[in-house]
């Protein structure tokens, strides 16, 4: 039985072109209708760009308090990169703005660069087309207006980076697997790999395959989750409130017992000291 008010955590395989917030809105609307309530806290842990797919964590009710904890988990991505071209957003959201030679790049060079420059602790400047705040405003809003955006570099950890596929020398395409810390922008990683190889690069596809112990093959589609929320039995708002009050009362009783035990222990200790005088 689901208890969305007390808090549930769902793992979604986010579809292509959906924003993370669109998934949240769909889930919230379905739950509000099913529970016949006007408001319910629903949020996501770890934003995925519209052009990315894969693991997205959705929290409801009091489980939203765990968002920061959940999004801190190690993440794994499969990234498709095209060499020799750059875009302002570092992915396919914007058009190619410059081209570079790539014929000089070999598979051996790619593997060496990934191993030596993109493994362990690195510094990364997030993309201008990102949610990083500039004077309180998301950078992407300024970037989309053509404003110059300056963002400070951040320290990240790349635990693993693996070249899975290499189209060189016929095609300037790479597929890499990345295991990294919170806050890593794979689009920016693609940009930096292009620069390190003496060329340019941008992301052409991205899939988040894991957050912590949750793998994408164990996630629900949006449609499957919405069907589950329509059909599975749920704790009513009244029952959820009663359960919360009972837990609160039990917590208060436990605290009272602990205080009483502590007072009795202090009293025994005092009597023991007095008897020894």
Task: Please report which band the strand proportion falls in: under 5%, 5-15%, 15-25%, 25-35%, 35-45% or over 45%.
Answer: 25-35%
- Give the termini separation: 61 Å
Query: Structural class, from secondary structure content?
Result: alpha+beta
Alpha plus pi helix count = 7
Q: How many runs of DSSP E, i.e. beta strands?
A: 13
- Could you state the CATH homologous superfamily of the largest domain? Pseudouridine synthase
- Mean residue pLDDT: 91
Give the CA-based shape.
extended
Which architecture of the largest domain per CATH?
A: 2-Layer Sandwich
Biggest sheet architecture = 9 strands, mixed
| Share of helical residues | 25-40%
Description of the structure:
With 277 residues, the protein is an alpha+beta fold. It folds into three domains: 9-71 and 216-235, Alpha-Beta Plaits (2-Layer Sandwich), CATH 3.30.70; 75-211, Pseudouridine synthase; 236-277. Helices cover 36% and strands 27% of the residues. It has helices at 20-35, 67-71, 107-117, 139-144, 186-196, 222-231, 237-276, and strands at residues 9-14, 42-45, 52-60, 75-83, 85-86, 98-99, 120-124, 133-134, 137-138, 154-166, 173-180, 201-211, 214-215. Strands 1, 2, 3, 4, 7, 10, 11, 12 and 13 form a nine-stranded mixed β-sheet that branches. Strand 12 (201-211) and strand 13 (214-215) form a beta hairpin. Helix 1 (20-35) runs parallel beside helix 6 (222-231). The mean pLDDT is 91.
